[in-house]
Amino acid sequence: MISSTLVRHPAPHPTESLPGYVLRLSEANGCASPRNLYRLAEMNAHQSSLRNFACSKFAAIANLPTSLLDQIALKSSKSESEVRLLGNVVSVKDLNLTRARVCPECVEEKGFIEAHWLLEIMVACPVHERSAFWYCSECRSPLSWIRSGLLICKCGSSISSTPRDSYSESDLWLLDLIRRKAIGDRTNRRSSSGMPDSKLGAMNLHSLLSLVRFLGKRRMTANWSKKKQKGRHLLQAAATVLADWPHNFEILLQDICPRKSGSGEIGAIALAEDLSNIYEVVHESFNSRLARYRFITT
Questions:
Q1: What is the mean pLDDT of the segment spanning 277-284?
Q2: What is the pLDDT of residues 215-226, one digit of tens each?
Q3: How many whole angstroms separate alpha carbon 64 and alpha carbon 11?
Q4: Burial label, 298 (beta-carbon count in 10 A; 0-12, 13-18, 19+)
Q5: Whole-prediction pTM value?
Q6: Worst-scoring range by mean pLDDT, 96-105, 119-128, 264-273?
Q7: Which among 50, 73, 96 is the end of a domain?
Q8: Tally of CB atoms within 10 A around 184
Q9: Residue 231 CA: distances (Å) to CA of 94, 109, 115, 192, 284
């Protein structure tokens, strides 16, 4: 076992992200970057990656029980395409494991970076209603986990200002729900903005993220959008469908498969009212449109 030479050994917070904790420990001990800690722990690139993090090796230099790091580390699930984030099963495609995001105000208030920032969909802070900091205006580079401090970019500039992207109340409500589910926050949620809040609130994190990804992509496809189906664009598209429920969902079905009569849409909405059959309802409409397109073009 490696003997720790670190002066300070702060313990991780229960809702802290693993790379955020490594960065906080590195800063507390005056290291230039987390790479210094990885070298001290004799961890190679594979062992320092988030999906394969060697908790036992790192715990030795942090002077901590391995179990404390295990609690905030990404854990393997039954499927190779899924992992556990703070105990929540999530799809790997819903994670952002290469680029860092942060809300400077949250860090100033809490002193650490919460684990929900590892989710790709978390593009803004619903607490402070501001965009996440992810791109340095000084060095023009994406924010990296390899830097000298929680609120310091790798170029040395301070992390303070954020992009001024605007987010609707529906966007923020959905982000707030995702954040709370990720970190296990059961306090009162934001007031609803016409969303099916009781139904979404009953879903687990994996199902909620899958639904957001599914509806967002279908809404963007129906809009013929050429924007990337991820991040802010995906979030806002999904929030549009879920807002003023089920009216905007009916509009999505109509855009996917226009009908001469609205009677068919009423039955579809009733079928998807509890959200459990929403995938089948949308797929049915989409396949109907695809079949019609093939008929016209052949």
A1: 63
A2: 999 999 999 999
A3: 7
A4: exposed
A5: 0.87
A6: 264-273
A7: 73
A8: 13
A9: 10, 25, 17, 22, 26
Range of the domain at 232: 169-297
Non-local (6+) Cβ contacts of 27 within 8 A are 148, 149, 150, 152
Give the rounded distance of the alpha carbon of 186 from its chain centre: 18
- In whole angstroms, give the CA distance from residue 156 to residue 57: 29
Cα–Cα distance list, 265 to 78, 84, 272, 292 (Å): 37, 37, 11, 17
Distance CA 200, CA 275 (A): 8
Question: In total, how many domains does the chain have?
Answer: 2
Sign, CA dihedral 8-101-103-17, equals negative
217 phi/psi in degrees, rounded to 5? -65, -40
In a domain, 155, yes or no: no
Tokens standing for residue 40: 């001290």
Residue 104 included in any domain: no
Domain boundary residue among 73, 88, 109? 73
**What would the mean pLDDT of 106-117 be, rounded to a whole number?**
97
Burial label for 48, CB within 10 Å (0-12, 13-18, 19+), is buried
Q: Which two tokens stand for residue 200?
A: 């979404």
Q: What is the number of residues in the chain?
A: 298
